[in-house]
Recover the amino acids of this structure.
């Protein structure tokens, strides 16, 4: 550092101190690799006359997190040397790929990622290269989408996010999200699917059947919006599951029928309906029925799927009514999708959502919060659902 300051070297950037150190480390590692490959050190001949030997170097520029670094890669006469630390035709170190995937998960477009890398790190990475990097996750995405699942989950949340996909013309297409709470109180996103049109119960039946084929034999409670036909689809796949209307969807739809100045009052009036230990619906209906009959009708139409919620202990109702479980995931997905505008293909849209989902909890702190928050509810589930979760615990 003292020598760098005396020479006026910057820490980062092309020709900076970190670039020079990276160059030395990489070249030293490459020299070690070719020595191991040939079986003898530099300036030494192999034991066998005419054996393979070093054959000079070739220059190569690699893109790193600190900018472009030019290195000298050793060669052998027979051309059999296959370096590992910087493989043949590799132009980027692993950290650059991870950075591109991280930026893509946050919703940046390929052009924005390219500009960011050029501005901050002085690295020239084309949009096509960025697309190639993000395409590498597709194989992992397919494997993740087909992985075996647990035999039972206490709660499964179902929802759909609308995205714009250009297939001849730009059209809204749903991406279906299934999120579950495990018997250990952790979050598990079971899968992502691109629908072929409106959010329909028929497609949800296809999704639920796929989950069953991947090992989910039972779900205690399925939380979803009030889509017509969806309770029948759930009953067909998991006959013992309790179908619960998503409280957040009911609240959000209620506000659409009311003046904004009444939103706070209506929210306070509805809260006892889904949080009180006894049924409090009549109080709200009498207070607001004459001014907003559409809100009363909305809740009464959804009452068959809302009523089961009222029979559970407060511990279960507390974690279900907030539905923060899937709303926080949806918020991250919407942020990533909104930044892109629209997608050229289904796979491009699915890749963007998958990257957003995989970056939800980078530190693992969220996993700990989930376990702590769901512990009281899981104890209540054990009692309410007659030990259906017990046999799955290890």
């Amino acid at each position: 550092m003292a020598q760098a300051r005396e020479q006026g070297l910057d820490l980062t950037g092309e020709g900076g101190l970190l670039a020079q150190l990276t160059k030395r480390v990489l070249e030293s590692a490459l020299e070690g690799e070719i020595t191991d490959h040939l079986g003898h050190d530099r300036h030494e001949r192999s034991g066998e006359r005419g054996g393979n030997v070093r054959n000079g170097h070739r220059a190569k520029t690699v893109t790193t997190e600190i900018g472009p670094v030019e290195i000298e890669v050793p060669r052998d006469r027979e051309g059999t040397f296959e370096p590992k630390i910087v493989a043949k035709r590799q132009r980027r170190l692993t950290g650059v790929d991870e950075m591109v995937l991280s930026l893509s998960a946050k919703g940046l477009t390929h052009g924005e990622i390219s500009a960011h890398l050029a501005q901050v790190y002085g690295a020239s990475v084309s949009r096509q290269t960025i697309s190639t990097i993000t395409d590498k996750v597709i194989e992992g995405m397919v494997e993740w989408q087909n992985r075996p699942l647990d035999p039972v989950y206490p709660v499964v949340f179902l929802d759909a996010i609308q995205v714009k996909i250009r297939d001849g013309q730009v059209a809204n297409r749903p991406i279906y999200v299934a999120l579950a709470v495990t018997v250990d109180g952790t979050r598990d996103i079971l899968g992502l699917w691109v629908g072929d049109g409106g959010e329909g119960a028929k497609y949800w039946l296809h999704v639920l059947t796929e989950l069953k084929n991947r090992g989910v034999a039972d779900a205690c409670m399925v939380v979803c919006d009030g889509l017509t036909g969806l309770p029948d689809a759930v009953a067909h796949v998991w006959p013992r599951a309790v179908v619960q209307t998503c409280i957040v969807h009911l609240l959000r739809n209620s506000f659409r029928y009311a003046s904004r100045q009444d939103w706070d009052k209506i929210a306070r009036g509805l809260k006892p309906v889904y949080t009180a230990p006894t049924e409090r619906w009549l109080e709200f209906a009498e207070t607001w029925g004459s001014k907003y009959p559409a809100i009363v009708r909305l809740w009464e139409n959804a009452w068959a799927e809302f009523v089961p919620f009222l029979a559970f202990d407060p511990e279960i109702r507390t974690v279900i009514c907030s539905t923060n479980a899937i709303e926080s995931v949806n918020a991250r997905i919407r942020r990533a999708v909104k930044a892109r505008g629209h997608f050229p293909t289904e796979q491009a849209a699915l890749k963007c959502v998958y990257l957003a989902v995989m970056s939800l909890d980078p530190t693992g702190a969220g996993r700990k919060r989930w376990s702590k928050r769901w512990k009281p509810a899981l104890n209540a589930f054990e009692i309410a659902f007659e030990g259906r979760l017990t046999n799955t615990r290890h």
In short: The first strand starts at residue 54 and ends at 64. Strands lie at 54-64, 67-76, 152-167, 169-181, 187-194, 218-224, 242-245. The chain is about 50% helix and 20% strand. The chain has a mean pLDDT of 78.
